[in-house]
Design goal:
By secondary structure, this protein is an alpha+beta fold. The chain is built from 6 helices and 4 strands, in the order ββαβαααβαα. It has 2 domains: about 30 residues, no CATH class; about 70 residues.
Length: about 110
């Protein structure tokens, strides 16, 4: 591969080529989604068919969980409350990642 330095074409070293290719590969693998808006979260619950189940589960939780679910503007994937809810619904870590990735597109 050739790089242009100050107008001169120079052959890239193996290390430079490897670094370039690693950078290109990372463009195709976006970082995991860590949070979504409440609208995105609840629309994704609806899309996967668990909104009513989650609403019923939340209604059985302590008041602080109910308040957080009802009034949060953002749902953070790594929060303990989120982990408890997804565990109760039987989601795997991969399913949680997929859920947040899909929700982020809404």
């Amino acid at each position: 591969m050739i790089k242009n330095v100050n107008g001169a074409d120079i052959e890239m070293t193996a290390e430079e080529i490897a670094a370039f290719e690693a950078g290109q590969a990372s463009l195709n693998n976006p970082p995991p989604v860590g949070s979504v808006s409440a609208r995105q979260f609840k629309l994704q619950l609806f899309a996967v068919g668990v909104l009513d189940t989650v609403d019923a589960w939340v209604a059985q939780q302590p008041r602080d969980v109910q308040i957080a679910y009802e009034y949060s503007g953002t749902f953070v994937k790594g929060s303990p409350m989120m982990a408890a809810g997804f565990a109760a619904m039987g989601f795997t870590p991969q399913q949680i990642d997929g859920f947040f990735a899909a929700a982020a597109l809404l």
